[in-house]
Amino acid sequence: MSSPLGIGIIGMGVISETYLQNLTSFPDVKVVAVGDMLPERAQVQATAHGIASWGTAEDVLADPAVELVVNLTIPRAHVEISSRAIAAGKHVWSEKPLGLERDGAAGLLRAAKDAGVRVGSAPDTILGPGFQTAKRAILDGVIGRPLFVNTIFQTQGPDMWHPEPAFLFAEGAGPLLDMGPYYFSALVSLLGPIVSVAARGSRSRTVRDIRTGPRAGETFPVEVPSTVQVLTSFAGGQHGTHLLSFDSALERSGVVEIHGTEGSIVLPDPNQFDGRIAYVKPLGVLRDGMTVEQEWIEIPSQGTVVGRGLGVLDMARAIAEGRPHVASGELGYHVLDVMLSAQESAAAGHDVDISSTVAPVPLMVDGFDPFATTR
């Protein structure tokens, strides 16, 4: 048994806390260094989580004990930091999206292949027991052959709670690129690649206010559509409708419904690692005056619930075992291509064909225990 895989994390923003909590609890990996453009932030997290080495991104990339870099920087820095990690001979796990444009993200995957290292891409919620249980149920035929899907994410927007929300309304974000990865990654891993999209987008206003934190009351520009509606066509013949909005007074998110020839199933919120899974079967007959009462059949999820960082652990084990990891860079690239195509469709007002594809996304290994020692 070899030693735990050495992990270096770059980017000590809000999301770093949950990554650190989880990655420092998995025996198959060891966080050996953390870095940030503000080294003092890295020092705070290193001290809080018992990590020996801290500093800048350069310090993490130069550390020989770091075998895999977890890239938690802002989206516009993803390709740059990931490329530098690959050039240093390290595997990469990137927060979503993989990049902000196709050429940079595709070049990242080519560089990784040439260097003999792996790339993984968030979200890793598709590795959670909720989604994995639902996927197995669909593959087992509980709803027959999937026909069409419906997803909804609608909220007033992250400016209601985030102390620095401007980047979420800037180029490379908005509800499409910020939340879309969760929904499209889940659907592609279930149904296969998407071949075309049609989309429409709008902005409720061009300037928004910061509502909380030390900068409350300041304004910032809205650079991208804050509501996007997307139609998708899948290679397998299915189609889908998707709403992604930061403009809704009605808070409703996590809606994923898949309708098939023999039933309909609701899946957990793709931004979570667990949740409700239930399906209904078609009604036998319906006559005037009859009450429509459908029985929901609940499916309990199977597996251990952890959180972000699960994809990093799966990568570490897959490297050791010589198998594909689930949340691959190729999946991340295809989802990026889908979202950029939707963005282009919304701007141009016509359908856009998707040029990329992705191989079938594997299920998690049976009996996957995050807290076991396997390396």
Protein architecture, described:
InterPro entries: Gfo/Idh/MocA-like_OxRdtase_N (IPR000683), Gfo/Idh/MocA_oxidrdct_glycsds (IPR050463), GFO_IDH_MocA-like_dom (IPR055170), NAD(P)-bd_dom_sf (IPR036291). The chain is globular and about 70 Å long. The protein is of the alpha/beta class. Helix 7 (174-191) packs across helix 9. The protein contains 9 helices and 17 strands. Strand 5 (91-94), helix 5 and strand 6 (119-121) form a beta-alpha-beta unit. The strands form 3 sheets. It has a 9-stranded mixed β-sheet with strand order 16-15-14-13-7-12-11-8-17, covered by helices on one side. The protein has a 6-stranded parallel β-sheet with strand order 3-2-1-4-5-6, with helices on both faces. A two-stranded antiparallel ribbon has the order 9-10. 47% of the residues are buried. It has helices spanning 16-23, 39-49, 57-62, 78-87, 102-115, 129-139, 174-191, 310-321, 329-348, and strands at 5-10, 29-35, 53-55, 68-71, 91-94, 119-121, 146-154, 194-202, 207-209, 219-221, 227-234, 239-245, 252-260, 263-266, 278-280, 297-298, 352-353.
Summary tags:
single chain; 375 residues; Rossmann fold; nine-stranded mixed sheet; six-stranded parallel sheet; 9 helices; 17 strands; Gfo/Idh/MocA family oxidoreductase; Gfo/Idh/MocA_oxidrdct_glycsds; NAD(P)-bd_dom_sf
